[in-house]
Amino acid sequence: MRFHHLDLNLLVVLDTLLTEQNITRAAKRLNVSQSAASGLLARLREYFADELLVQVGRKMLPTPLAQSLAEPVRRVLLDIQSTIVNKPEFDPLTCKRHFKIVASDFVTTVFLSPVAQRLQEQAPHISLDIQPTANHYNDMLTQAEVDFVIMPDHYLSDLHPKALLFEDSYQCVVWRDNPEVGEHITLAQYLELGHVAVNFGSARAPSFDEEFLRRYGKSRRVELTTSSFNTLPHLLVGTHRIAVMQTRLAALYCTYLPLKVLPLPVKLPVLREFTQWNKFLDGDPAHRWMRNLFHEVANEQGQPEVT
Q: Keywords assigned by UniProt (predicted)?
């Protein structure tokens, strides 16, 4: 289809080129050869009378015109997807959509697992791709490379709608036979023990540590770090170490591993997990249905007692 002499298929090409800023990667995403992708870029340059992407060293950087086109082009494509390609008639029993979700392994274990069970019952042809958190997840959401991001509010963008899913609290967790810990733990004991902590790197530093330092001016003695909430409880078994875990996850692992849960010796803010989606897909019927499913599952799970 052409609009004012522009082949509208080229908008997909332009969007991909501006996202990847690399001919080889763009060609792979478009499922065309590198020479074909170069030819499509040449057609776009001719239409807009602008270079659009300029080679600078090993990178291709967008021109000012290309930068100004990036968001409008993405918005047009998302509008087409949500209003034309994804027709308003939506039947979860026959829908074959594929949703990409960015979430921590904690959220995957305690929340997305029951969501997946519900999908099998209500929408058996909908598939999920659950991706780990990464430094550029906000860009991925804006570019519609993922459908949902589930994280605490302060990690999310202000550009897109979001909604509270569920709340959780924190607990201390130790090996059940840890001889240095009874049924309660003091702040002095807490600081003396070696800790196991989850660390996602500088861009995803655990908010727990930041809050603890801010409130009490104390730092934990971290002896082991891991990049997964689900490996943390395993690293406690057979040791004298301690860890801070979300109440939901701690309760789950105490049913499988010889662990003991203790109340924290300090007061910490409630953990609130939100879901966020691209604003241009707000009215998409399948997206709306998935958001309703999220909240349905969250409401049925209820909230743990916050200590």
A: DNA-binding, Transcription, Transcription regulation
